[in-house]
């Protein structure tokens, strides 16, 4: 991998993978915290604790849009790089980048 363009492609692919995993993680955490809040309300827990849990849910909600924006930007950047380097289509880095682009694309919306 002597060509810096291949290294760049590999780095951008890694960024998209990491941000995609981060987005999924935030979404799972939000669901878990919402379930916890619902459970606390059903059990009639102390209002202060319920209020604090509502704050936790709000914090989780705030993280997701930022992560989606970063993921969309990184995905677009990777796609541009892949389209700009069709001569590398037989390399492992190029194939991995295409795979990641195809895997992440349906989940961008």
Automatic annotation (TrEMBL):
One GO biological process term: post-chaperonin tubulin folding pathway
Q: Name one GO molecular function term.
A: beta-tubulin binding
Residue ranges the record marks as coiled coil = 16-47
Q: Where in the cell is it found?
A: Cytoplasm, Cytoskeleton
Where it mainly occurs, coarsely classed, is cytoplasm
**Keyword Disulfide bond set for record:** no
The record, for InterPro entries, names: TBCA, TBCA_sf
* Keyword vocabulary terms for this entry: Chaperone, Coiled coil, Cytoplasm, Cytoskeleton, Microtubule
Q: Does the keyword Cytoplasm apply?
A: yes
Q: Output the Pfam families linked to this UniProt entry.
A: TBCA (PF02970)
GO cellular component, alphabetical, reads: cytosol; microtubule
**What the protein does?**
Tubulin-folding protein; involved in the early step of the tubulin folding pathway.
Assembly and partners are described as:
Supercomplex made of cofactors A to E. Cofactors A and D function by capturing and stabilizing tubulin in a quasi-native conformation. Cofactor E binds to the cofactor D-tubulin complex; interaction with cofactor C then causes the release of tubulin polypeptides that are committed to the native state.
The family annotation for this protein states: Belongs to the TBCA family.
User: Can you say what this protein is called?
Assistant: Tubulin-specific chaperone A
């Amino acid at each position: 991998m002597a060509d810096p363009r291949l290294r760049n492609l590999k780095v951008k692919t890694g960024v998209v993978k990491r941000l995609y995993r981060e987005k999924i993680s935030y979404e799972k955490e939000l669901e878990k915290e919402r379930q916890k809040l619902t459970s606390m309300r059903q059990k009639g827990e102390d209002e202060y604790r319920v209020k604090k849990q509502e704050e936790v849910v709000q914090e989780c909600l705030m993280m997701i849009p930022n992560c989606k924006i970063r993921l969309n930007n990184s995905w677009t950047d990777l796609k541009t790089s892949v389209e700009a380097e069709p001569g590398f289509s037989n390399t492992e880095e190029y194939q991995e980048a295409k795979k990641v682009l195809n895997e992440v694309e349906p989940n961008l919306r």
